[in-house]
Amino acid sequence: MTDHQRPITPGADPFSRLRAMTPSRVRLDATGNAAPLQAVLDFQLSHARARDAIHQPADWAQITADLESLGGLDLLHLKSRAEDRMVYIRRPDLGRQLDDGSLTEVRAAAPATPPDLAIVIADGLSASAVTTHAARMVGHLKDALPELTLGPIALVREGRVAVGDAVAMALGAPLCLVLIGERPGLSVSDSLGAYLTWNPQAETPDSSRNCVSNIHGNGGLSYADATDLLAYLVRGARNLQATGVALKDDRPKGKLIGEG
Asked: Rounded to two decimals, what is the model's pTM?
């Protein structure tokens, strides 16, 4: 008998099992009294971390150093049309577009033979997620997909998911993978998302993308599991020549991500 199957002892907290299964806050006080001081302080700390994740800049110097340590990768340092963080938050459309100088730079860096895959790293809504996880995911994917040629890794400040479309189009890559900081919550503020798009074009709808989310170290998807899933989707996209609603994770049922 597992813990969640055992009968609840009279007088015991009926939510204790649920709290053990999730970092989310679950009914802090079952009697309806004011939340205890520790819970209030914990909430305030989590709220501050979420705000910092959104407003603080990503550590691009650290990300660059981490990517350079992988070896064999060219890097492009780019910007969206959002001039600063406040514009980025207020004008999502500008975060989806490269500024003119960046677009020129990508076109100039495009190899004579188009790469199989364009990888884009954008800060999104969590600087801590990108700083902590993005370069490590690139390393795992580089090892997991040795058959693919990679274009220069594009690091885009104030970027949103769709900014990857412009990068991939300029490089001539048929497939684009955007690693981006996800909107922080009060349980996790450093979650990374990965968006895969076949044949990216201007105004590509979200229904044409596959998303692997919740990549982080606090009970989220591990690097290994995220890499296994993304490698499977990348190969599926190349075979099917499509992503989004047309591409499914149809691995054998009951097989855990990361097994065999």
From this structure: 0.82
